Amino acid sequence: MKVPVKVDGRELTLSNLDKVLYPDFGFTKAEIIDYYSRIAPVLLPHLRGRPLTVKRYPNGVGSQFFFEKNAPEHTPGWVRRARLPVPGSTKNRESIDFAILDDLPSLVYYANLAALELHVPQWRVDDDGAALPPDTLVFDLDPGPPATIVECCRVALVLRELLAAEGLTARPKTSGNKGMQLYADWDCREEPSVYAKRLAQLLAKEQPAEVVSVMSKKARPGKVFIDWSQNNPAKTTVAPYSLRARERPTVSTPLMWEEVEACERAEDLVFEAHDVLARVEKHGDLFGRA
Fold first, then answer.
1. How far apart are CA 225 and CA 155, in angstroms?
2. Mean pLDDT of successive 10-residue segments in the chain (290 residues)?
3. pLDDT of residue 90
4. How much is the pLDDT for 245?
5. d(CA 92, CA 100)
6. Domain identity same for 90 and 184
7. What is the pTM of this model?
8. Which residues are CB-contacts of 205 (< 8 A; sequence separation ≥ 6)?
9. Between 29-47 and 273-283, two packed helices, what is the crossing angle to 10 degrees?
């Protein structure tokens, strides 16, 4: 069934609203659209101006998915797009028309496409669609089993101090999966991947039993891999407040440092969509710029 709606003056047609996309929890497409609509005031500032990559799950999280960078041909004309070069594209394309979610109608449009996960780079485009220098630095902390987010929190606290000594204020969030990320506003003092790699290697040298800075799977069991490479301009990271396509409708959730310091069990930092809406109502945007 298709349902015509108006969102901030834009006409959209929503479809299959009763389709269950998280089967273990009975979480429907209607609930996904509702979540993204309600979280939009704090989510959109983190998406605005950033070229979008989505993971779409038309038949739910237990079924086949696909990454999508190029805005679909049927995308409404009012959804902002930017044509950007993609050197080395696996599909031999010289450029891609990326969607940029600047407003609520655009966000709802993508939610209706079952774009559960929203991924963006650490840079934005200007009003003309030209790429700007990176404005964000990110460290992705990925635990190698049996390590969990508990170990990531310990590493995050050390990394926070290293960044503070460099004049950078770190902001933590869960990945919504098994790890977490630290972000900081970036002033382009040097190439961000080079800078992040140096700090990751420093921690790996100082704490070799807990931290690894190389991508080799063999090196990671029981340790926290600090992935510095997501600062590469061609890469993306899951956006704050994005859903994740797990068994449960978990969310990449901004954290308070007190929560990072107090974390004793992995379950302490697992938040679903309803939890995050309640957190925002109580605390506002914990990922607001420092």
1. 10
2. 96 97 97 98 98 98 95 95 81 88 98 98 97 97 97 98 97 97 97 97 96 84 96 97 97 98 97 98 86
3. 59
4. 98
5. 22
6. no
7. 0.96
8. none
9. 40
Strands (E), 57-132: 66-68, 81-85, 95-99, 115-120
Task: Provide the CATH number for the domain around residue 140.
Answer: 3.30.70.3300
pLDDT score recorded for residue 290? 43
Query: What SS3 string covers 131-187?
Result: ECCCCEEEEEEEECCCCCHHHHHHHHHHHHHHHHHCCCCCEEEECCCCCEEEEEECC
CB 173 within 8 A of CB 287: yes
Would you say residue 30 lies in a domain? Answer: yes
Q: What are phi and psi of 121, to 5 degrees?
A: -85, 180
CATH assignment of the domain containing 63: 3.90.920.10
Cis peptide before 249 (omega within 30 of 0): no
**Segments in the chain forming alpha helices (H):** 29-47, 104-112, 149-165, 192-206, 257-262, 273-283
Which residue has 């635990």 as its token pair?
A: 143
Q: How far apart are the first and last CA of the chain?
A: 45
The span from the CA of 139 to the CA of 166, in Å, is 15
Q: Which two tokens stand for residue 123?
A: 């840079």
From CA 120, how far away is CA 54, in angstroms rounded?
Answer: 9
Same domain, 100 and 241: yes
Domain boundaries, position 43: 2-121+236-246
Fill in the DSSP letter of residue 242. Answer: -
Contact 245, 251 (CB under 8 A): no
Same domain, 112 and 30: yes
Helix axis angle for 149-165 and 192-206, nearest 10°, is 120
